[in-house]
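re: ur question from the group chat, yeah i did fold both. here u go
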Amino acid sequence: MTLDLLPRRCPVCGNDTIIGHGRRLRQSHDAERECIWVRRGICRPCKKTFTILPDWLAPSGCYTLYCRQRACERIAAGESAEQAAPHCKDPTRLPDPSSVRRWVQRRVLSVCCWVQAGVFGEHFLRAPTILAWDLGAGCRILPLEASSP
């Protein structure tokens, strides 16, 4: 999904009532960028606003999932959390070692959960998306929908 496309269905009320509500600058630190413009939408009946993020940017996080992926790969290669902090375009915005350790813990937990659920796709488990890298955050932000048989 491109960020220019705005979903119309409100996850709160279920109606096609989301309309554009501008853009805002959002931090997205990694080796290539410092921030990006993201679309906002509003559901007037619910009075809820929504920020439409790309799949490689976690909600409430200022580092991209690519940045987290590089850190995890470096730790898997034997580096310490202090050494594994990935390079960012803005050198003053390097992640703290405690953040790197937290990313690794979330990644390991996500992989364990997906393996227990029977998902063995190597591409899926390596993809830098919120579902592959932080299942807990994905479960917090994605509504559960009933599926009919």
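okk and heres the other one u asked abt
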Amino acid sequence: MVGVVLTLAIVVPLGAMWWNSLLPSSYSVMTMGYPDYGGGPRPAGHDPAADGHDMAGMGHASSGISVTSLDTPKGLRPDVVVDLTTSEGTVELASGKTVEGYTINGTSPGPTIEATVGQVVEVRLHNEDVEGGVALHWHGVDVPNAQDGVAGVTQDAVKPGQDHVYRWVAPHAGTFWYHSHQMSNEQVSGGLLGGIVIRPATPEPGVLDQLAVSHLYDSIATLNGDTGHQSVPARPGQRVRVRVVNTDNGPSKAWASVPFKVVATDGYDVVDPTDVTGKGIGIPGGGRADVEITVPEDGTAARVEVLGGVGFDFGPSGAKAPSVTEPEEQVDLLEYGSPADAGIDVSHFDRNFEYSIGRKPGFINGRPGLWWSVNGHLYPDMPMAMVREGDVVKFTISSHTGDVHPMHLHGHHALVLSRNGKAATGSPWWFDSLDVQKGETFEVAFVADNPGIWMDHCHNLKHAAQGMVTHLMYEGVTTPYELGSDSGNEPE
């Protein structure tokens, strides 16, 4: 009897945990997790007893503002029109090697989308034969919520043979990228992605501009789909801006054979960047760094190297660039550049959220394992940060795991306030992708100025597929779209 009782004492709770972890065949993000109000006001009629219960918090509100109405104004004439056709199968790299994956207009990376600030961009997506469906997300471009391109949250996945039109106004000059947010772990690693360059209304004359989309295809490091070092013609003394995009799950790094400046990160210019020598610039998964070099006057070439043995050599035709070893030290953006007014009042916060990343044994959709957790909770019982438009929001993000977590919030850029208690003293460090290392704690802030339902997840997409996904939710916003096997929507 004692043995039976002990067995039941173990089996029954485990069975309950297993049962409670099973996901419905169709469910809404409105019913995921539990609402976290960050110490701010709750909606009228809210029952505090509902907080913290599995899939209990939000309820599927029958009224409110739908994400479909949070859109680019109708009737705007597009300035830039891009047709993108996605396919599944063989990807031929510029080196001639072939791998299995995905293409856009027959190539990977897909075509670069180029626009000027204020222009209306129209992207016409046609899914030729990607069986799992496609949804395109504009990583780092703070578009209206309806255009965010997340299957099951802002749209349904575009099935084979179907079309979808995206339309948004280019809001901010900088380097960005696009990728699928349907089955994203599989499709992004397979190459369903491309670069975005938004230029200012009056670009600086005489500067050579080079996009560098870094991606691993079946463990093969590439820049713009090519391996090794590519020669790019440039005049002696010419300034070159290299826009490095890290499309992979892990951190990357860039450095150069000549002094360089970090002139922008995640689409935001650095104030008073200074020359860097003997160091590299770290780039989180999903992040971008724009570096500027000057081609030597002596007729030699300058090399900009990116992790993985790939890079560009800039100089006159036939000029040789010296090889340069990977530096151990990295630029610390917490103190790089000069301080300036960031345009956000951080003397008071309307919401204060904790985002503590850990590991926890348990079940996710019936599968046992050691899973990623946020504030001690497993997917889908995650904290959903609730805000109102106009709130000044602070997140304290900490990691208690051995992995690097490139945290990515959709629809917003946040300002780094401190790391491990040390206040930021350099140029305002704005980001949409932030590496949080083991034992690190960041304080970051932003203004809730883009209403919607926004994913807030780890951009190591393997981690996201394993449940490291929460949402930033504006009070009163709802979505008609659903997740689950019946819907066919699987953003991660």
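fwiw on the second one: The helical segments are 2-21, 184-189, 461-465. The chain has a mean pLDDT of 94. idk if thats what u expected
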